[in-house]
Amino acid sequence: MRVLVLNGPNLNRLGKREKEAYGTFTLEELEQDLVEFSYHHGIELICRQSNHEGELIDWIHGAGDDALSGIVLNAGAYTHTSIAIRDAIAAIDVPVIEVHISNVHKRETFRHHSFIAPVSAGQIVGFGQNVYKLALHALLLQ
After folding, report:
1. Which of 11, 47, 53, 97 ranks highest by number of CB atoms within 10 Å?
2. Residues of each annotated binding site
3. Nearest of 29, 4, 16, 2 to residue 129 by alpha carbon
4. Which one is catalytic: 22, 39, 78, 105?
5. In the predicted model, what is the mean pLDDT of residues 110-123?
6. Where in the sequence is the domain holding 117, given as residue range(s)?
7. Residue 133 has pLDDT above 70, yes or no
8. Domain CATH number, residue 66
9. Sheet holding 2-7, edge to edge
10. Residue 16 has pLDDT above 70, yes or no
11. b/e code 46-63 from CB counts within 10 Å (16+ = b)
């Protein structure tokens, strides 16, 4: 099983920004934890982060071309604004699990709507860095 973990804009700032919402762990620490977790579950993990919408879309398209088993996607603020990322997900036959470290439904109202949710296999929010592991478990069960 090969899974792509995609993190969108500002997630490279984990551990430095809004610690009350996102915690104190860094993106590097998160990715290392996920690689170790994945190894014990027989998952080959590919981790990527970009602040650029087009790059995220190219990686989503590539996941479809590479026949990956799934994508765990934290699109950050693009969740609430990007029809282009929504369309990229709809254009592939790879299950996508949308994740958010914070509970977006308890935050500002503009964060309550997701363009990604309707084309995703599921959405996991509000459990800190554990949302990624929960998403990997969900992909294992598919």
Report:
1. 97
2. 74, 80, 87, 101-102, 111
3. 29
4. 22
5. 94
6. 2-141
7. yes
8. 3.40.50.9100
9. 44-49, 2-7, 70-74, 96-100, 122-125
10. yes
11. bbebbeebeebbebbeeb
Do residues 23 and 100 lie in contact, with contact meaning Cβ atoms separated by under 8 Å?
no
pLDDT band, very low/low/confident/very high, at 22 (cuts 50, 70, 90):
low
The domain tally of the chain equals: 1
In the annotated binding site for substrate, the residues are 74, 80, 87, 101-102, 111
Active site residue 78: no
Q: Name the 3-class secondary structure at 69.
A: coil
Model confidence at 64, pLDDT cuts 50, 70, 90, reads confident
What is the pLDDT, as a whole number, of residue 72? Answer: 98
The position carrying tokens 């990322």 is 85
CA distances from residue 47 to 79, 107, 109, 112 in whole angstroms, order as listed? 18, 27, 29, 26
Q: Is 39 a catalytic residue?
A: no
Tokens describing residue 4: 């792509």
